[in-house]
Task: structure prediction
Amino acid sequence: MPSPKKICQTQIKLAILHNRLDWVKKTSMANLRTPKHIFVTGGVTSSLGKGIISASLAKLLQARGFSVTIQKFDPYINIDPGTLNPYEHGECYVTEDGAETDLDLGHYERFLNVPTSQANNITTGRIYYNVITKERQGEYLGKTVQVVPHITNEIKRNFFLLSETGKYDIVITEIGGCVGDIESLPFLEAVRQARWELPQEDILVIHLTLIPYLKKAGELKTKPTQHSVKLLSEAGIQPNILVCRTEYPIPAEIRKKLALFCNVHLNAVIESIDADSIYDVPLLMKKEKLDETVLQKLHLPTNQEINLEEWKAFLGKLKNPTSEVTIALVGKYVELPDAYKSIAEALIHAGATNECKINIQWIKSENLVNQADLEHYLGEVEGILIAPGFGERGIEGKINACRYARENDIPFFGICLGMQCAVVEFARNVLGLENAHSFEINPQTPHPVIDMMEEQKKITDKGGTMRLGSYPCELKDKTLAKQIYGKKRINERHRHRYEFNNQYLNQFVEAGIVASGINPDSDLVEIIELPKHRYYIGVQYHPELKSTVLNPHPLFVRFVREAIGYKAR
Ligand code: GLN
Result:
């Protein structure tokens, strides 16, 4: 029996005979593609921006016509970050298929404009879970199950899952954490093994490090990077490329020194200087020829046209605003802006679309206790956005902010818990339903205007059990939502357990609320709006997760436009 590759080659020869060149091109791309693998590790310190570097490199390769995806391997033991407090880990990013993932996947989507999935984010917990499940099923019968080879094999299996789909030319794998962390060891060991299993030209390692500047000495220092590369080589990995984060330009002699001591080519020392915006990084990496160096090392052609026109147009608008507004982002985790990463980025995209600079005023909802607080914190803003969230802390402040926006006709945007707070506020202060609340916060409330979803009532496990991922929503004619989206049916991503209680719907409608978006299968209210108000909209889903540089989310774009209008009133 000839191998599939052989059959394919014969078919190609036949096709050439029949002059079907187009077919040949497609088939040889799809069937004979051997995906290349790029691993990105980090050293010296965390928070150097491996996610942004990975996304920027992917963007450049995509702009050259390659099909690229990025996956992140996280060394913690949680199965996913869904159960982590945002203070621990920043925002939990939800994919179309309902995976609760690391916030770097948000960067990947915002840069590449291509959805990710569960396969793009794997944790140590998930690796061990799979191995232990297999052990119980008897898959390793008779064997002692060990980190090497069983855990490392499972890591490698996951490394290659996306590349095996045949959809990608290049798969970039970001290894979370720092070289030297105990937790990262099995991942690095798996990378080391993969390097010996794949042809040399199909795999490379980029190491991201820090070149600190010592003010008193007036010098950039290379020693931490040398040590970090040494640690990596102790794990059996010699990096091919160094990306060096720095506050100042790296002069030629320092680059030479890094190349010499860290065992890399001079052109493989890439400077990554602090940028004004993360969206500048692809162009900075292009200037440093990171993409070219990568392609050469992977034996891939470098002579394609690079299409970054739309990206540059976005940057042009981002950098040349013609107006400026202040948006209050009312939340519970505001000390850590990463907790609301996608919202902040969606505002940046919408700002650029409107050629408007957005100043986000981060407001801790607990500070909004009385009228004086509301006036102090919200009196000067041009838009109020109430953030998603869970639990009781700060909830009354969010409800107060909803009232302040409604009564003062300030553009309002409530997201998930933000929408639920708007419903509670309206119930209490307009419908006169005393002590109305969300069942999540007060199960004893006489008016649970936000109630637990029916299917959630039987669930006891906390991890991965919310209503997650993409669901359809139908928009009513002649509503703000329909006008903004410009279509009847939309799909948006969710992450919640509670919902608008439809038993109260008539009372809300009679008092002027419009339920403008409804899930066609469950009747769940997905969008509320208040037509009497200048701009008042609340959504049960997370529009911020779908906003990208090339596709800013229409709800954010309109919110910013309304804020500009409000300022000019
Ligand atoms: N805590 C609310 C719920 O579970 C809202 C969740 C959210 O804002 N993501 O329904």
Summary: The longest strand covers residues 323-331. The radius of gyration is 26 Å. Residues 23-32 have pLDDT under 50 and may be disordered. Residues 388-390, 416-417, 440, 495-498 surround glutamine (CB under 6 Å).
